[in-house]
Amino acid sequence: MSKHFLFALSLSLLFGCSKPANDAGTPPPSTASVAALNCASATLSSTATAGVAFTATGTLPYSGGNAASYGPGVAVASTGVTGLSATLQGGTLVSGSGALTYTITGTPASEGVAQFSVSFGGQSCSFSLTVGADGNFTQYGTPFAGVPDRPDAAIYQVNMRAFSGPGSFSAVTARLDSIKALGINVIYLMPIYPVGVHRGVNSPYAVRDYRAVNPEFGSLADLRTLVDGAHSRGMSVILDWVANHTAWDHPWLAQHTDWYQTDNTGVIIHPPGTNWTDVAQLNFNSAAMRVAMIRSMKYWVYTANIDGFRFDYSDGPPASFWRQAVDSLRAITTHKLILLAEGDRADHYSAGFDYTFGFNFYGRLRNIFSGGAVGSGLDAVNATEYQGATADQQVVRYTSNHDINGSDGTPLELFGGQAGSMAAFVVAAYMKGVPMVYNGQEVGLPYRLTFPFTGQDIDWTLNPLLKEEYKRILSYRAASAALRRGALTNYSNSNIAAFTRVLGAERVFVVANLRNSAQVLNLPAELQNSTWTNAMTGASLSLTTQVPLMAYGYLVLRN
């Protein structure tokens, strides 16, 4: 568990006695009166930290009391830092000097100064509460120094429930060597949190507690062991984060109903435009909710020493939230964090994400394998998916993931068996972006892992030769700076994806037949009569004016 260090609380007075026109928060009693309120001497019983639920008792000295009784007031909302309120407790004035008692509650939306303007007995004043910065968590372990740069990532998605019979962290830890040998340097864990039960469908994306481990997978200690094992093998670990909504039995629904979106009758709703009735839509107009959400993200960076997040349904929350979240996470200077948006909005780049999701590239591959032309269509998708990208921001490219596998089919179903699936993967891994592999696709799993992923597990003994082919493809990408960072030139025709990646003196030529029949690529003049080396076999190959390819055949050439 984590340990917070709360920042010291300071009180300052903005004082001015006057006859108020009215105090909507605390109406003056009809008989009670004081000569002065002394906000400069106000005291509170505890300290306040941004994003942390706060309750305190405050005392506000007065002079010139007239010994009258008075009832409790209504809540006075804070200004400046929002999310807090001060409520006068009922009592009886003393004759002369005494103190009023206020209860201050809420969750400060940010660090800074929260001001409370109060009035009583014909006088008014303001007192200010300084809210400390987000409390520091205790760092578990040593922040990982081997997090890859954006273009160098090769991501592996782990679906814990389907990964093994036990469906546990320890089962993943036991296969870390195998994942590493595949050519992976980033492991992405699907949601690890307790799953909602109320109105639930056993979805791991219905999160009941952002700061707990699902006991189905093991303990926090087991998660830490997995992360430590990955780090010791040179791999980063990122967690799936569901920011748009929570399970219906998340504690926030009982504690902060204003943190959720409602219909015009005040009833909390599920995400609009979806059939996700097992989750409740969060209200991103709530500054306090945003801070609490981001604080929970930070919890895992420190408590489990993880290396970033894949943010589920990133196209749901507004860009302003993502900018706030990314800026807050980047402020953790001890960690180099991987931030992946599972979305394709152009504003994800300006929000500061490292990666967006290649929905359109996958869709284009599906179209091609359904008979659509290759041609310039891949160029068009590259232009669309990279619109707004700066520096080395990247798109994650894939031929499978947990959604696709369950709903559309396995790579074998979608891309023409083993041979076609590898031709598709070469294009996804090499053309532009970073590759992602879904657990099980490397062994050519012939059956789907269907929601909620509690059925058939992965048979890791299948198709060892196919797994070796995935290794060769990913290993060569890791060895080739041109494939990771080189300039792209597209030479595709209607049936064959063909392109070069060039960086300095290194040139890679990729040719992949995306048809289940033999095809020929006519070479442009700049590639004719050239000599290359087959990057997979080391054999020399001289090209003339054409490249013939068998059905679903591909070549990766370098010179």
Folded structure, characterized:
The protein has 15 helices and 30 strands. It has 559 residues and is of the alpha+beta class. Helix 6 runs parallel beside helix 7. The protein is elongated and about 105 Å long. The protein starts with 10 loop residues before the first strand and ends with a strand.
Oligomer: single chain
Total beta-strand segments: 30
Strand order of the largest sheet: 19-18-15-14-13-22-21-20
Task: Describe the main β-sheet briefly.
Answer: 8 strands, parallel
How helical, in percent, are the residues? 10-25%
Report low-confidence residues grouped into runs of 5 or more.
Answer: 1-26
* N- to C-terminal distance: 54 Å
Strand content: 25-35%
The outline comes out as elongated
Question: What structural class should be given to the helix and strand makeup?
Answer: alpha+beta
Alpha plus pi helix count: 15
- What is the arithmetic mean of pLDDT? 92
